[in-house]
Amino acid sequence: MSAPSLTPTTADPARHSPPHRTPVRPPAGRFARTVRRNLTAHGFLIGAVVCFAVFSWYPMVREFLLAFQKTEGGETTWVGLDNLTTVYHDPAFWQAWRNTLLFTVLALLLGFVVPFAVAIVINEFQHGQGYLRLLVYLPVMLPPVASVLLFKYLYDPGYGLLNDLLTTLHLPEQQWLQDPDLSMLSIVIASTWMNMGGAALIYLAALQGIPGELYEAAELDGAGLFRKIWHVTIPQTRLILSLMLLMQIIATMQVFVEPFLLTGGAGPEGSTTTVVYLIYQYAFNFNNYGAAAALGLLLLVLLAGFSAAYVKLSRAEDA
């Protein structure tokens, strides 16, 4: 029997070479789902962009162009600053701005303070907050026209409930919408009741996020209700308060529905003529779309400047 050979044999390269791995491909179904998901996301995004372009950006660009154009006999010509000059020399121009600023100030005194106070009161209730939130938000769910007509009935000098209440209390009746001194205040009261529900719920959500330990520490220091609101509640909700202040100023500067339906727009002696109502008059009563666009451009520049100043001051405070 022969001895085994000690000569090394040549190794089989096929045995020791790394195996060839075929790349794993995702199943066709998973790939198709990924494509569909991305297409759906891009479809929604494109739809949103198209909506903004058609209903927001295009009207803004069109308004900017109309402010420097004039259309007569179907022909459009560039007139430069003539539309701005026409608006500036209108006697109703400065009256509309004064009324708009007056409405803004009164709306901030009522519409900014009242919802915050209502939110604080609701936050103190341990039970029934859901019903109170529904009760506060109910006016927002009503159509604005219905709410305005309701207040028009309340303000009626002949059979209005407010004058009936004053008569019951042996107080003199008031011409709420016919008196130039009361017409704007009456509109502010109606607007506050109509729109305070959303702001109150936002404030309530912010209040419920404040840690209870802060109020307990304030009570240990002997702080009363108003001191707790001033030193705890307001500082903890400063961001929400400042944001709501900006949004409310922008909204009140564009008031139109309430004075248009309650006092016909201009009101007694022009006491409720606002900037947006004057824009409406230029466009639909005078058929002067260039002047309407010019006045709208002034309002846009004013609100944009205010918003930019607010953002700059907010960043400076946070720095």
TrEMBL record:
Biased composition (Polar residues): 1-10
TM segment ranges: 39-58, 101-122, 134-155, 182-206, 237-257, 289-311
PROSITE patterns xref list: ABC_TM1 (PS50928)
Membrane topology value: Multi-pass membrane protein
Family matches, as CDD domains: TM_PBP2 (cd06261)
Family: Belongs to the binding-protein-dependent transport system permease family.
Protein name, as recorded: Carbohydrate ABC transporter permease
